[in-house]
Design goal:
- The chain is an alpha/beta fold.
- 43% of the residues lie in helices and 10% in strands.
- It has one domain: TIM Barrel (Alpha-Beta Barrel).
- It has ten helices and seven strands.
- α3 packs parallel to α9.
- It starts with a helix and ends in an 11-residue tail after the last helix.
- The relative contact order is 0.22.
- Mean pLDDT is 86; it is low at 1-29 and 265-277.
Length: 277
């Protein structure tokens, strides 16, 4: 009877851990206080990896470029890779190693309270040439907030980034993609932030496994796309080498979100996508 009881408990635990939903993403957005792992070393690369080309591109997008974007019409195979909900004490440094090995610049939409926990990782993101965007301070649903509370969320995140790394964000990604069109308009007017959504969502918060994340991104990405991922999740970071290399081998070139938005005003008459929450 004891053996049967133990099996029953293990079965219940397995079922509980295996059931993933969007609620898991909400719970996982809380700041993580895991101690750093000083023994971790980035695995050696087996053979040469593709390299993103060196590019001198403007990041000065026009304030009139648009209020909301999920992609930009571009003249070449440019793509913006974005990572939400960090910084994370183990996953983000591991991801930064992968990006550096390939000369890729990405955009990190950080949660302000995580920045306060890990300012040194935030500084490293900026020092290595990546862009940082505003993802609010507590990762709440802004459609359920008053305008005053939204301002507090945006201000606190902006100030955390400025304290940690000496820069201010230029774009906003709303948690869960939830932001009313009226909110997007006044935030753009007051802060100058375009709302940055995404054209490619691998649904990595469902933990489908690294190979599935890679396959979904490689299949869905087209020129000018903004790709969503989360450095909060270790399997997502594990998926990135194959994802980056697959896109590079297809001829894609990685740019930051601001560089992509600047291409709209400088190179092509793109239409901003407005995605309802």
């Amino acid at each position: 009877m004891k053996i049967a009881s133990h099996i029953f408990v293990i079965t219940l635990l397995s079922a509980s851990l295996g059931s993933c939903s969007n609620a898991d993403k909400t719970a996982g957005s809380a700041p993580l206080k895991t101690d750093p792992n000083p023994t971790y070393k980035t695995p050696s690369l087996k053979g040469p990896v593709p390299r993103n080309p060196d590019m001198r591109l403007s990041a000065n997008f026009s304030p009139n470029a648009g209020v909301s974007f999920s992609r930009v019409n571009v003249s070449d195979k440019y793509v913006a890779m974005t990572f939400d909900d960090g910084p994370h004490p183990q996953n983000t440094p591991r991801l930064l190693d992968m990006l550096r090995a390939r000369n890729i610049k990405a955009t990190f939409y950080v949660i302000g309270r995580n920045v306060d926990l890990y300012p040194e990782i935030t500084r490293r993101i900026v020092a290595e040439g990546h862009e940082i965007g505003n993802h609010t301070y507590t990762h709440g649903n802004m459609t359920k907030m008053s305008d005053a509370t939204v301002r507090q969320e945006l201000d606190k995140c902006r100030d955390s980034i400025a304290r940690a790394a000496g820069v201010k964000p230029r774009t906003l990604r709303p948690p869960y993609g939830a932001l009313l069109q009226s909110q997007r308009a006044w935030i753009h007017s007051e802060y100058g932030y375009p709302t940055v959504m995404w054209a490619v969502d691998p649904r990595d918060w469902q933990r489908p496994g690294p190979s599935v994340v890679t396959s979904r991104i490689l299949t869905a990405t087209t020129p000018g796309a903004i790709v969503l991922a989360h450095d909060l999740h270790a399997p997502t970071v594990t998926a990135m080498p194959a994802t980056f290399d697959g896109l590079l081998n297809k001829g894609y070139k990685f740019v930051t979100v601001s560089q992509l938005l600047a291409m709209k005003s400088d190179e092509a008459p793109a239409q901003a996508a407005v995605t309802a929450p």
